[in-house]
Amino acid sequence: MELVWLEDFNALAQSGNFSRAAELRHVTQPAFSRRIRALETWVGVDLFDRTTQGATLTDAGRHMLGSAQEMTRRLYQMRQEAREVAGKEARTLHFAATHSLSFTFFPGWVRAAERSSPIEAIRLHSDNMRVCEQMLLGGDVQFLLCHQHPDVPPQFAAQSFHSKVVGSDWLMPLQAQQIEHSSGTEPLSLLGYTAESGLGRIVSARLRQEASPPSLHTVFSSHLAAVLLSMALEGKGFAWLPKTLAEPEIASGKLVRALDEHWDIPVEIRLFRPTMALSAFAEEFWAKL
């Protein structure tokens, strides 16, 4: 039994796709598939049903998932605590944050948090939502900072994590000022988010709720809101952008509404952490939030 097999298992259970999971784990798909099969051989049962659409957990796999995630986190926590005892990681907070919040929200939020409790050291990992979730699940970080909507739960077991609302934001449909949409039934040019993006999940859920969603044609996709903002400024289409990210462009008039206020999406900014005990310093930081 190898720890890497459990990490692979968690990644595939989360993504439901061998190629995406292999990408997350930074290995080739054939090597990743061999490691999943090795785990199944060790357990003695199939953990995934494999189809052309992807991979879904079997009953045995679903039964094993919670324990596998908890075991992985505990092993990494054990390593972290040993390093803290040795003085190598003392009083360091480890965060994963989605790209847009890393650039806009995180610096000011951390400065405000330090007023009540000085922070000696921070390690911030910035990536898309899928990678950030995997880092929290794997125990690589203590905290995950992300946009969250009540209708779009994170892709990990809610009972294994606590969270606090630490801010708020809006996703606004924005475009360059000079764009003029054609009249009639022509679809609007959408600058969309890829599947790795948490903001993309939120926008997709909002559109599914509408009885008559706007006619949209996706002309460009990225998991980075900052890239979509740049494309919108170039007049390539419109995107649902976080207000915290696009505020300077909105204030200057470079970006204007592509759709009316009905299509604004209110979102929370949440900080997630495992239910299991963290380091004493991390627990002190959490308690004072």
Produce a short descriptive summary.
With about 290 residues, the protein is an alpha/beta fold. It has two domains: about 5-75, Arc Repressor Mutant, subunit A (Orthogonal Bundle); about 95-289, D-Maltodextrin-Binding Protein, domain 2. The protein contains eleven helices and eleven strands.
List the helices and strands and how they pair.
Layout: H1 3-15, H2 18-24, H3 29-43, E1 48-51, E2 54-57, H4 59-85, E3 92-98, H5 99-103, H6 106-114, E4 121-127, H7 129-138, E5 143-148, E6 161-176, E7 188-193, H8 198-209, E8 216-222, H9 225-233, E9 239-242, H10 243-252, E10 255-257, E11 265-274, H11 280-288
Describe the protein's architecture and organization.
With 289 residues, the chain is α/β, with parallel strands linked by helices. The chain has two domains: 72 residues, Arc Repressor Mutant, subunit A (Orthogonal Bundle), CATH 1.10.10; 196 residues, D-Maltodextrin-Binding Protein, domain 2, CATH 3.40.190.290. Helices cover 44% and strands 26% of the residues. The protein is built from eleven helices and eleven strands. Strands 3, 4, 5, 6, 9, 10 and 11 form a seven-stranded mixed β-sheet that branches. It has a two-stranded antiparallel sheet with strand order 1-2. The protein has a two-stranded parallel ribbon with strand order 7-8. Helix 1 crosses helix 2 and helix 1 runs antiparallel to helix 7. The protein is globular, with a radius of gyration of 21 Å.
